[in-house]
């Protein structure tokens, strides 16, 4: 199999990047950084009447037991089928482990607009031994106050913590730095 032109690859990437996260529907899998790779190939199958190449998609879950991965795989298969792609393979890889460092700035802004505090700082994934990580204040996505308090380390999903703002009194999720 030969990798096709970058135009076909960009088209396939754009299709995959439209798929939304089922747990946080304002984010796409590209915003979250779990869409890792999209490759297109000429598989030599003349039966594909639409003339679409074969597609190989690589995704990484936010954590190894993420229940949303089945829905994401199904949504990817459906969006490519709707676009006329007959041959789509979706691979889930666990290494390297996903990190919030892979989230896009646009994705973090969408989280804030949705009422979820975006991760702040960098995870330090891949090293940085010797440094001591300090917990920083989490800004309330409603009133922007830093006067917030963690209620529980695990919120509506394992990758979020539940906080409350001491000023506006609103509870909110914080997407943890992982």
- The global form is elongated
Quaternary structure state of the chains depicted: single chain
Beta-strand percentage range: 15-25%
Mean pLDDT, all residues: 86
Whole-number total of structural domains: 2
User: H/E element string?
Assistant: EHHEEHEHEEEE
What is the alpha-carbon Rg in Å? 19 Å
First and last CA, distance: 36 Å
Largest beta-sheet details: 4 strands, mixed
In total, how many beta strands?
Answer: 8
Query: Count of DSSP helices?
Result: 4
Please give the share of residues in helix: 10-25%
Could you name the CATH homologous superfamily of the largest domain? Fe-S cluster assembly (FSCA)
Decide which structural class fits the backbone.
alpha/beta
Low-confidence stretches: none
| CATH classification class of the largest domain | Alpha Beta
Query: Architecture of the largest domain, CATH level 2?
Result: 2-Layer Sandwich
CATH topology term of the largest domain: GMP Synthetase, Chain A, domain 3
How are the strands of the largest sheet arranged? 1-2-3-4
Give an overview in words.
This protein has 178 residues and is of the alpha/beta class. 22% of the residues lie in helices and 22% in strands. The protein contains 4 helices and 8 strands. The strands form 2 sheets. It has a 4-stranded mixed sheet. The chain has a 4-stranded mixed sheet with strand order 5-8-7-6. Strand 3 (54-59), helix 3 (68-82) and strand 4 (88-92) form a beta-alpha-beta unit. It is elongated. 29% of the residues are buried. The mean pLDDT is 86.
